[in-house]
Specification:
It is built from 3 helices and no strands. By secondary structure, the protein is mainly α. α2 runs antiparallel to α3. The two termini are 14 Å apart.
């Protein structure tokens, strides 16, 4: 059973940008709570990656719940980086949606 998935990243060019937030560096201030959550999330991912490694070693498959957690971390990091690098004005959510099965 082949369950590989491809990754598609689509970023639409914004018609307008919130220049006030960019100029006053308010985006950086708005992101501080996200960076705290992201650092805790990264700590959790580093611990669960060891558990996932053993799961892969013994079963030959990535445990589904741990894969979903890693997926959520990568998605959250991508959304936060896009917001910080001013590719989007849409602030990231603290917990992204669940992956589609």
């Amino acid at each position: 059973m082949n369950t590989q998935r491809s990754v598609d990243l689509t970023i639409e060019y914004p018609e307008r940008s919130s220049r006030i937030l960019n100029v006053l560096f308010l985006k950086v201030l708005l992101v501080i709570p996200h960076l705290i959550v992201l650092s805790l999330f990264a700590l959790l991912i580093s611990m669960t990656s060891v558990v996932a490694w053993f799961g892969i070693l013994f079963t030959g498959r990535y445990p589904r719940r741990l894969w979903n957690l890693s997926y959520a971390y990568i998605r959250y990091t991508t959304h936060l980086n896009a917001y910080l690098t001013m590719l989007t004005d849409q602030r990231p959510k603290f917990w992204p949606e669940r992956p589609q099965e």
